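=== Structural record ===
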Amino acid sequence: MDELEFYDKVGKINGWDFSKLNVISEGLKWDFYEEVTKKCKSSDILLDVGTGGGENLLRIASSLLFLVGIDLSRGMIETAHSNYKKSKVLNVRFSQMSSDNLQFPSGFFDVISSCHAPFSSMEIARVIKNGGFFLTQQVCEADKLNLKEAFKRGQGFGEVDGTLKERYIMELKSAGFTEVQAFEYDANEYYQRAEDLIFLLKHTPIIPDFGQGEKDLDILGSFIENYRTEKGIRTNSKRFLIIANR
């Protein structure tokens, strides 16, 4: 299964909603969409790249004049439209679209966000207004490190931690963003039940094709034994945040 097929499948099931997971996090330094709203005025127009099921966009909709969420996955956008219809929000629109070819006029958006989704720095720079803010949160290579080491495979496994962050910083500066700030955290996560961890692995690309390997469930069982604590099954969540001003 390629990456787009994976996100289509996940999108139709639950969008990008992990709110029902029983997990305790220690050391989180920010909530991404709260950071986004800090840069927004009530008269602003926002673009959310890789919006998933649109849950976060609908949550912050009252902070802005108008919001647009795009995602390459048809399944994600179908879920976003379903979530929109269930909500009482009127100022949000969702569209299936590639982040490499943003179908909007130049200088159209005041603020652009991208959470755990790829983006083109040149396209972001083209459709954002002068003085506008771009914020992105991405997964570090050292995220869920003990899980990846147990499976000997995983998202970013074997890559130098910080590689993606440095590449995006360089690309944004090259695209014309004058101020580019980066932050990161490495938080402990404690999953309360094996079911919570299995749900995470089945609905994210942390361990590609989880469950299809003959030994995957045995490896997970050993992992749970080795990392079970009084607080839960321990792993880590490592993220970086970039805030760039045009």
About this structure: The first helix runs from residue 3 to 14. The chain is about 35% helix and 25% strand. Residues 142 and 159 are 8 Å apart (CA to CA).
